[in-house]
Specification:
By secondary structure, the chain is an alpha/beta fold. It has 2 domains: 144 residues, P-loop containing nucleotide triphosphate hydrolases (Rossmann fold), CATH 3.40.50; 130 residues, Helicase, Ruva Protein, domain 3 (Orthogonal Bundle). The protein is 48% helix and 11% strand. It contains 13 helices and 9 strands. Strands 2-3-6-1-7 form a 5-stranded parallel beta sheet. A two-stranded antiparallel ribbon has the order 4-5. A two-stranded parallel ribbon has the order 8-9. The protein is elongated. The termini are far apart. 25% of the residues are buried.
């Protein structure tokens, strides 16, 4: 099975749901990031290895395929597997057998393989960057996961889901989105899709002291998108948004710049430079 969609659309979440609603639900679900699989590491991590198969191989290992026996193996970003290693993956998929690195003994496996990519594999085949036989072996069932901007009805329910998860994580009362925040979330195009929405909601939650999340707690790009469409200067809006976010972060951390920088996702030196550039007044907070 192949899941195709932009980065951050929730392909792994969909793969987990497919596993949960299948007859393999009681078995394991193992996700694998194919961008990390290169050279000997490819065979070792996917197929396992025997003791002494290479320098540093001090024990026998099962590999992801054998570990997922009876369950589901999710190969994320399948398009990033180097061309020279795709033939080895194809053989395993066709034969249902794996041979650990350093061994001559093939081992039978029973694994459902679900793959995902954000690239056009058919075009990669045409360009010679992906094996045609592997493409046709994987392309039995293909599900296209649409980007978040094409399913706006999902935005607020997903935001509510993320809020509930965060409140449980912090063991705090749930927070709600103001009407203005809801409108901004619906109007923003979300180029980073569900992953970006989840990060935006988490930041807004952390930046809000009270029970209701207001506009100033949103990431600046969400606010800027609306204001830019309204014809205001994007440069002025960006600086104003930065000033609001930094001031709120400093107030929330009682002037602790290191903690504020962590909330904002920058280091302290960057924070100091922005404070100096924008002449942000922080005399009302206790500074480090």
């Amino acid at each position: 099975m192949m899941l195709v969609g932009e980065t951050g659309t929730g392909k792994e979440m969909l793969a987990r749901k497919i596993h949960q609603y299948s007859n393999r639900r009681d078995k394991v679900f193992i996700p694998v990031d194919c961008t990390t699989l290169t050279g000997p590491l490819f065979e070792s991590q996917l197929f396992g290895h025997t003791k002494g198969a290479f320098t540093g191989a001090t024990d026998n290992t099962m590999g992801f395929f054998r570990a997922a026996h009876g369950g589901t193996l999710f190969l994320d970003e399948i398009s990033e597997i180097p061309l020279e290693l795709q033939a080895k993956l194809l053989r395993v998929l066709q034969e249902g057998m794996v041979t650990p690195l350093g061994s001559t003994h093939a081992i039978a496996i029973d694994v459902r393989v679900v793959c995902a990519t954000n690239r056009d594999l058919r075009q990669m085949v045409t360009d010679g960057d992906f094996r045609a036989d592997l493409y046709y072996r994987l392309n039995v069932i293909t599900l296209h996961v649409p980007p978040l901007r094409q399913r706006p009805a999902d935005i607020l329910p997903m935001a509510s889901h993320f809020l509930n998860n965060i409140s449980r994580f912090y063991n705090e009362p749930p927070k709600t989105l103001s009407c203005q925040v809801q409108r901004l979330l619906l109007e923003y195009p979300w180029p980073g899709n569900a992953r970006q929405l989840a990060n935006a909601i988490e930041r807004a939650y952390v930046m809000t002291n009270g029970p209701t999340i207001e506009t100033e707690a949103l990431p600046p790009e969400v606010v800027i998108e609306k204001q830019t469409k309204a014809g205001q200067s994007s440069l002025l809006t960006l600086e104003a948004a930065k000033e609001r976010l930094i001031t709120e972060a400093l107030q929330r951390t009682k002037g602790q710049k290191t903690a504020a920088a962590k909330i904002l996702g920058i280091d302290r030196r960057q924070l100091n430079r922005i404070i100096e550039k924008l002449n942000i007044e922080v005399t009302q907070t206790r500074q480090n």
